[in-house]
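Lab notes, practical 5.
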Amino acid sequence: MESERKKEVIEDIESQLGVNLSAAKYEFYTDGATDATVFSIDDKYLVKITDLNTVQTQREFLKENPNNVFQNLLCSSDDLSYLCFEFIEGKHYDGNEIDAKEATEQIRQIVGSYRKYPHDGYGFLNEEHVSWRAFLLDEIEYARRTIQDVPTEKVMSALEVAGSENPEQYLLHGDFGTHNFLLQNGKIRVIDPMPLVGDYLYDFYFALLSNVEIFTRLGADYIYSFFPERELSYKRAILTVALYVRMSRAATYDKDNLPAYFDLYGAIIEK
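Output from the prediction step:
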């Protein structure tokens, strides 16, 4: 990162928060697949310098979901394209630190806390589609580029069920998975939203499928038992689409676990 850009961001943080950071210590991190610059300041603040769309959509998500699960946004700037969060002490959750059933219950509580978000479209904020079906179809077609050898007949059949009508709209995290989970005193904290307008069930299943071992330990029947007020056929359809999409993400970002996703897909979808 250019030193002048960093200097401007630090000065803006000092002005907005009324602090002096002249003697602060910085630690820089990688940020997954994005080009963002992420660094901590004295293990007190976490700064993310990124594109304007990310700044605006993450700020909107955190405004609509103000609880102690997600990051606490302290200040931000559209002009300088950054967000400054309270630093979260914790370790990345790898699926083993707490029982799978306890993790699933916490995930259920998180998605159950999402707020209704009446909106013109469905999908990622600022990239909305006219319908829930259109968004899911776009996700399937994007996934197909990386897993072309996987049969899609069952996925397309699931799309017709999942997209048969537009569900009530909620503002979802959108990249809700263990790769964005930090564990703090046995509680899951969640970072780096990619805000998405849609059905909270999509986030629920996507999170459980982000660690294939969690899903395998619990089994499909146990996972389908959550949200009993929803139609089982719809839940199966949403899970099918989520698994297909999550498998394509693994093909790009989690190749070591891709064979496990193929096995799960064969066991759950193609059986």
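Observations recorded by the TA: The radius of gyration is 19 Å. The chain has ten helices and eleven strands.
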